[in-house]
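Help! Submission page says 'invalid entity' but I think these are all valid:
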Amino acid sequence: MSPRRDPGVLIAVEGLDGSGKSTQIHLLHEWLYGLRLRVHFTEWNSSSLVRNATRRGKKKQLLTPTTFSLIHATDFADRYERQILPMLRGGYIVLCDRYVFTSYVRDVVRGCDPDWVRRLYGFARMPDFTLYFRLPLETALGRILEGRPRLKYFEAGMDLGLSNDITESFRLFQGRIMEQYDLLANEFSFAVIDATRNVVEQQQQVRRIISEGVDLSHYRTRVPR
Amino acid sequence: MTRVKRCFGSPPPGLDLGRLIGALIVIEGPDSSGRSTHIGLLAEWLEQNGYPVVQIGLKRSKLVGAELETAKQGNVLSPRTMSLFYATDFYDQLENNMVPALRAGSVVLADRYIFTPMARDIVRGADADWLASLYSKALVPDAVFCLQVSDRTLVDRTLASHDGLDYWEAGMDLGLERDWFGSFIKYQRRVRAEFRKLQKRYDFAPINANRSIATIQTELKDRVRRVLLANYPGRDIS
């Protein structure tokens, strides 16, 4: 990743499926918006043109580890160059539900060369805050498996051939994802949030981290709303 | 023993290079340089001699071929996004078309490979090392033939075979000149200059494509024959 060269603030959330990170970043967004700040939210895998290809690739199981990695990088580059970077240059606080770490983790678990993946995302700027919502594997699995029992092929890591049973494959896959996240948490000094705690307490902690690390008064919007 | 294939860097996960027994032959060159004509003729000749042929080319992947075509219609994606989209298209064909064909012992004829996207991207400001890493999992071809034509020939052929100049082939997105013809000439020169650099880095054979189809085809067949002798020992073709 490349260093910061803009006046914006980049905040990323990462964590396993079921860690509650999307809820937390949504609440963070509401708070910053309510403070009348310049804030923008973007999520993984949402650029319209690329998403169609990704959806088809997933549905028809056309993806290999390499093309899985590249199609997500394509989506990311589109959002990065069109939204994230211009917003940061314009002095916005940009909130990212998943950032390049999601690819670092998933692609490496799928067998891609870690150096190759990191060079692929070499253009992306390092976040100012990466909030890692960490919880025990069994808790994360429990939340997903009880709430939404129909797992998708790639989501369960079925392409890795870990198990023919989709639930078992999901367990093993998520376990490997978590190992990789823990390694990155150390390497990139993530702010680790205990995602087993009450959601309201977690949000208080998130807001404390941001308000202690950023002078929010610099980010007031001039646009009336 | 056939020649063992290799990738420019480490291979993509799951690729067993030892099982690739066919030959990978790449034809590069600008639009209207005669690439598809020569590939068509080579394919016919090879199949008549008993070598199965599989053809690949840019924007032909099942995965993103259609989206890439759409993206070209409106100028909606940034250059880096286009680079990555083309790379996705390339690797999809590498893993799903090229590799199975080479495993089965076919000759793969590639109507352009990684070099055209690389040259185009560098002209649009991409970092050459970033691109080299992006494409480092590509197979090293058994031969790359680069059809080279003069400005004059290129202009004549382009105008004779199309109603007008293509927006992208004229480099209009770069804002070099308002005049399409002027932009086309400038853009093609820039691409050619990048190709010359890539030629040194990746070692391809320049083919003088200002000559007649028959003369060029004779030279190509002669060179392809030599490649095949190295890949399919003990067999020769006429």
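Support: the input was valid. A stray whitespace character was the problem, and the output above is from the cleaned input. Chain A has one domain: 9-218.
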